[in-house]
Amino acid sequence: MGLEMKNTQKETEKLDYKAIGERIRKYRKALGLSQEELAEKVDISTTHISHIETGSTKLSLQVLVNISNALSVQTDQLLFDAAITDSVQLESSLIEKIGSCSTDELLVLTDIVHATIKSLRAHHINK
Hints:
Elements: H1 2-13, H2 17-30, H3 35-42, H4 46-54, H5 61-71, H6 75-80, H7 87-98, H8 103-122
Helix pairs in contact: 2-4, 3-4
């Protein structure tokens, strides 16, 4: 019974590298980055990024963290496609994302946020 339990735990702890690669590709494309551009930001070869995205190679913890930073996402989002639901994390993520925006971009984003909040409240969409 003890051996049976250990085998079950090992099976559930396996990472799906193909799914991780697909999520990395999804976030990379959402940012409009090529594999070459991401590889440069992460300081690995384009071939390695390609292999990671197809799931044909495992990635180290350091490379995972570097990719996560380059894509401005949490590592959990790459590993498990986990959505951030904690308001503090959401606020932190938003602040991080807008930190690189120009003044003109911030003005547009401010208008968008105001319009969105107004629409949400008009349609009684609550927390």
